[in-house]
Design brief:
Layout (H helix, E strand, L loop, with lengths): L10 H11 L1 H11 L21 H11 L2 E6 L2 E6 L2 H9 L10 H9 L8 H11 L5 H6 L1 H14 L6 E3 H6 L1 H11 L6 H12 L5 H24 L5 H7 L9 H15 L1 H15 L2 H9 L1 H15 L5 E6 L3 E3 L2 E3 L3 E6 H4 L34 H18 L4 E2 L4 H4 L1 E5 L3 E4 L3 E3 L3
Parallel strand pairs: 2-7
Antiparallel strand pairs: 1-2, 3-11, 4-7, 5-6, 8-11, 9-10
The structure holds protoporphyrin IX containing FE.
Protoporphyrin IX containing FE binds next to helix 14, helix 15 and helix 19.
Length: about 425
């Protein structure tokens, strides 16, 4: 990725940082207990830091030897899970790989005590409290009144020009604009919101900037929260304030931590997959044409295939705090784990010819949004955004195509180490 501005980080790299920030302490624990992981399956690359340009090829090679691999991770040995069966099982197993073993250390300072730091009853109640505004039909109902107008506005800014970079001008700004609209903050504050979102993502690469963004966003949104408590509207904050589950309601700090989490969890993920989906379609013009001519039928399948083919959270770091034999793998205490979502989504046992992008597969990938208790809360919102973006873009720019000689930029690539993937740029043109 040399010479390319890396986009900001999200949830996954923060896990990485947990281990790397605590590199020395983690290393010393692991060195004393990691006997069963002594023999690495691959060397010369660190899955916590390194950009692996031929990631899919490497994962496929490792998986053909066995369903998991012992890999360097932040200077110590970790377990990389490579098959659909193992990755799905690991997501479901909160007891063995609890999210709270890693998130408080990785994101706690900037985001607070979020859902990702919780477990058991606390997590169940809190998730039930924040879930209603993100349900499938609620998200779908936002499409016409809220999401499509934002998509149109973004396209208005470049439609007459005849050319654009769809990553910088379309995919990147869309999710932050949607989250801001959900919060019901004035449109005039969009630039500030985008800056805070960016700086929050940038944790921990720029810890001072991220902490400052966290403080500034909290100062900005606290009075808004107080207003919504006094007089509620139909925005997300008002809905959170009004929820009650098993006699419990969300405290101000629980709401604030949740709102801070929305940016890293919901913006970069959606922007990267929109870029990857557009990249896949623009580099497979026959399939793009199929989607354009039959959007009602094909958009949904194109999105599902995009999520399978290039899951934006490609490698999700977790942690195994206690020694265990899990699915036949002997895992010492304090072992870094990597759930290779992108390898699960290209597991040939489940998806024949997995490297081929093919919207006619009609399969739904099971792990792109995680799984188990911490599975993605915003999946329906993300699906609605992707649907609106694709539908309106193809309606308004029916002959959109890649500019000559820009295919290399349009290729999906690692964005932060190997954790996240998306294209760097999508230089397109059309008849204005
Ligand atoms: C295509 C886009 C998206 C992808 C691929 C994605 C992926 C994921 C994954 C893999 C997890 C599980 C993390 C873990 O187990 O440690 C997750 C959790 C989460 N996501 Fe998403 N996400 C997307 C969009 C969104 C959006 C739009 C929102 C909200 C605005 C959102 C909010 C969340 C939240 C709050 C969690 C934590 C849930 C919990 O801990 O119970 N995500 N996401």
């Amino acid at each position: 990725m040399s010479g390319v501005t890396r986009p900001p980080t999200i949830i996954a790299p923060k896990f990485v940082t947990t281990l790397t920030n605590n590199r020395h302490s983690t290393r010393s624990v692991a060195m004393t207990k990691a006997r069963a992981l002594d023999s690495l399956d691959i060397e010369g690359v660190d899955f916590a830091f390194d950009d692996i340009p031929d990631l899919h090829h490497m994962l496929s090679r490792l998986r053909s030897a066995k369903p998991y691999a012992i890999v360097p991770f932040g200077g110590i040995n970790g377990v990389l899970l490579l098959t659909e069966q193992l990755v799905a099982a690991a997501f479901r197993d909160e007891n063995t790989f609890p999210a709270k073993a890693i998130y408080p250390r990785s994101t706690g300072a900037v985001l607070g005590h979020t859902l990702q730091c919780m477990t058991g009853r606390e997590h169940r109640i809190n998730k039930a409290l924040v879930s209603p505004p993100f349900r499938r039909l609620v998200a779908a109902a936002l499409c016409e009144p809220m999401i499509k107008p934002i998509v149109h506005e973004l396209i208005d800014a470049f439609a007459d020009r005849g050319s654009a970079d769809l990553v910088a001008e379309f995919a990147n700004p869309l999710p932050v604009r949607v989250i801001s609209a959900l919060l019901g903050v004035p449109k005039g504050d969009a630039a500030e919101m985008a800056r805070w979102a960016h700086d929050l993502f940038n944790y921990p690469h720029d810890p001072d900037g991220a902490l400052q963004a966290s403080r500034e966003f909290t100062e900005y949104i606290t009075p808004v929260l107080a207003e919504r408590r006094a007089e509620s509207g139909d925005d997300l904050i008002s809905r959170l304030v009004g929820q009650e589950v098993e006699g419990e309601q969300l405290s101000d700090e629980q709401i604030l931590a949740f709102l801070r989490l929305l940016f890293p969890a919901g913006a970069d993920t959606t922007h990267l997959i929109l870029g990857s989906l557009l990249s896949a379609l623009l580099t497979h013009p026959d399939q793009l044409e199929q989607v354009r001519t039959n959007p009602n039928e094909e958009i949904e399948w194109a999105i599902q295939e995009g999520l399978r083919w290039e899951a934006p959270v490609a490698l999700l770091p977790r942690f195994c705090p206690d020694a265990v034999t899990w699915q036949g793998i002997e895992i010492p205490a304090n072992t870094p784990m990597v759930f290779a979502i992108t390898a699960a989504n290209r597991d040939p046992v489940k998806y024949p010819e997995p490297d081929r992008f093919d919207i006619t597969r009609r399969v739904k990938p099971t792990t792109a949004f995680g799984g188990g208790p911490h599975s993605c809360l915003g999946n329906w919102l993300a699906m609605t955004e992707l649907h609106a973006a694709l539908e309106v873009l193809l309606e308004r720019l029916p002959d959109v195509h890649l500019q000559a000689d820009t295919e290399t930029d349009a290729q999906v690539t690692s964005q932060i180490g190997t954790a996240l993937r998306g294209p760097n740029a999508l230089h397109v043109e059309w008849n204005a």
